[in-house]
Structure formats: structure tokens, C-alpha cells
Amino acid sequence: MTQPDARLEITPDEYRQRRERLCLLLQAQGLDAVCVFAPVRVAYLSGFFFSATERPIALIVTASGEVAALLPRLEVSHYELQGPGGTLLEVYAEYPGGGSGRHPMRHLQDLLTRLGLQDRRVAADVDGYEHRWGYRGPALSEVLGRPVPSALALIDDLRAVKSSAEIALMREACRWGDHAHRLMQDGLHVGAQELLVSHAASLQATEDLLGTLGGRYVPKSREGMPANAMFIRGANTAHPHGLHQAGPVQRGDVLVTGAYGIIGGYESELERTMIVGDPGPDVARYFGAMLTAQQVAFGALRPGRTCAEVEADVRRFIRDELGMDGLVRHHTGHAFGLEGHEHPFLDLDDHSVIVPGMVFSVEPGLYVPDVAGFRHSDTVVVTATGNERLSLYPRDLASLTVPVPG
């Protein structure tokens, strides 16, 4: 059981257990090592959270349990604060070479040679560092002169089933996402500006979080706040990922909101459809249809089923019972944790088997062109017998109607 004054982050022992599980998978696949480039996967396996730039970073885990890392010089002290002890480091001066005349990927080749892996079977999550912030460089397969097997699924399948510690962090994140949403809803009124209300609520929720959690809260990022809320409004909500727009909130607006917390690097997800003033009959009908579809999804999500079966149940209900299949724009949900979207997906073509410990968003939406969108999203963890909703914000129309005086 977590101590009341414990820091809200994954422990070094759990990171070690993750690497041990990965080693067993490597052995079972006949692989000698895996080279991990994606920042979130590096963090998942090592506890090293960093701001990804054009400078390549790679973590190597061998089948025998050795850990090594390719780092730019500016990240060495940062890694030593967060990463596992005993890591073999290969440090380069700068990208693209800092005057050395050698690309960082050639330093990675040196590191693999130091590990005795130059002629062994090395897999990778992706074939080389991702092209961000102007980065250019050779693929790992080019550096090694041979094909590189993919190990993406080995790592991401581990990530799909959350530990009790991960679920506890996400539960706490949900608490603060709910709080940020409440502050935002309390600040809504006719004439309010989207960005001002959203940022004011996010800032206040963050201040409350820091005051409540104190030293237990451990930032894992250089950007953003740990508690956030936002909304879009009007016909703009008919676009599932509509951007902010200028202008005030008006009577009759439909709002689609989003709120989340981030605790120990783990996210929550909460979305609600809200109405400014009394909803008309059409708005109430679409809201009710969306709410019932989400309830069908809750009932369909349980261990032993596949993601595709859950989606099929929801789509069948929307098509056959609601007659609104033409208003669907996306699948029912997705897993998440360290990232806002993770594998697997509640989608007709994802046949992953659902098991206890998986965490999903549940968010079937209906989008009426030139009118509005209608979507709730909740954070849900799969249990032994069904699922549990971790985001506890009200879902009913009355609770989500913004009163308008007069």
C-alpha cells in the first residue's frame, strides 16, 4: 500500500522488473538486445524522462540484462539523476558532430561494439532516431549494415497492462483532471472566452495540486502543467479535434470539453459535452443518444473480449438502435498511460484481447455537421470482472448545463 507521504512516481524496483520482463521476451524471440529510441519507451524502461530534441538518445537492453545508453553530453548528469545505476554510457559532444566529424549514430555503432553486439541479433523499437527538430541521420540498419528486427510490440505490449502503481498514479491524475474541469465549469458564462477560462482553470487547478501534494508531486516534463482543462464551442465541436476560435461563449452553445491530470508522467482523460442555457429538443436528443452509446461501451468492455468486439457492440447500437451511424467519426476509444494515445485501440480492426490492468478512454462520439459534436470521454481501468471508471465527473445533462440568467 502506498505511504501517504510517498513520492508519486514509479520506483526504481519497478523499472528493474520491467527490464527483466523485457529480457525474458528477448530470450524467447532469440534476440540478443534491443535498441530503444522513442523517448516514452526509454522512460518506461529506465525512468529517464527527458526533453527530446535533435540530439539522438538511445537505450540498449541486452538479453542478459545489461543496460547501456547513447547520450549527448548535455544529458549525462540528467541521466545519472534518473536512470538506473551501472549503465554503460557512450557520450557524444553534440549534434550533428560538434566539430568531431562523427555523427551520433556512429557513436551508437561504437557502443554496440563495446557490448559485443556488432554481429549479434539486435532489434529496435524503430529503425533509428525519429526525425524531429531538423535531425537527419542514418537508420540503425544502415549503421549496422543489416536488417533490424522490430521490437516495438515487445515493449508496447508490456506497457498495455498497467501495474497497481501505474493505476494509482492514473487514479490521482483523474482526481486532478476532474478538479480542473470543475473549476472551468464554474468559470463558464455567456461572454466568456475559451482560452481565458481554460487557462485560468488550469492554473488554479495546478496551484491547488501543488499545494495539496507538496513534495509528493514529481514533475516529469519541462512543459505544460499537471492539471489542465479546455473547451471548444458551437458548430466547431462538430469537428472531433476542432481548434480554439475567437469570440465569446453564447447562449445555446454546445461545448465539448477536455481535462486531464499528469502524475508521475501518467495521464488521465476526461471529456464532457455541455450546453449553455436550456437545451433544445434536438440537442437533448443527441446528448441522450451519445450518453447511452457510452453506457453500452462501458458494458461491453470486459476481460476476455477483443477490442474489436467492444467496438462492434457500440457501432451496432448506434446503427441499429439509434439510426445515427452516419454521425460517427472515430472509434470508441484507445489505451493510454504515459502517452495520450497508446496501443491497443477499441477499433473494428484491433483484435487485441482485453485483460485486467488495461486502461482505456471510452468516448463514442456523434457529430452533427454545422450543428455540434456530442462526446463524453472517461478513463476506465479493466478489472477482473468488468471495468471501473476512474474519472468521476458527472455525466448527466442537468449537471452539464451552464445556467443563463433571465
UniProtKB/TrEMBL annotation:
CDD domains associated with the record: APP_MetAP
Peptidase M24 domain boundaries: 169-384
Domain Creatinase N-terminal residues, every copy: 18-160
Gene Ontology molecular function, alphabetical: aminopeptidase activity
Signal peptide from the UniProt entry: none
Alphabetic keyword roster: Aminopeptidase, Hydrolase, Protease
InterPro entries: Creatin/AminoP/Spt16_N, Creatinase/aminopeptidase-like, Creatinase_N, Pept_M24, Peptidase_M24B
Gene3D superfamilies membership: Creatinase/methionine aminopeptidase superfamily, Creatinase/prolidase N-terminal domain
PANTHER family: AMINOPEPTIDASE (PTHR46112), XAA-PRO AMINOPEPTIDASE P-RELATED (PTHR46112:SF2)
Name of protein: Xaa-Pro aminopeptidase
UniProt organism field: Deinococcus aquiradiocola
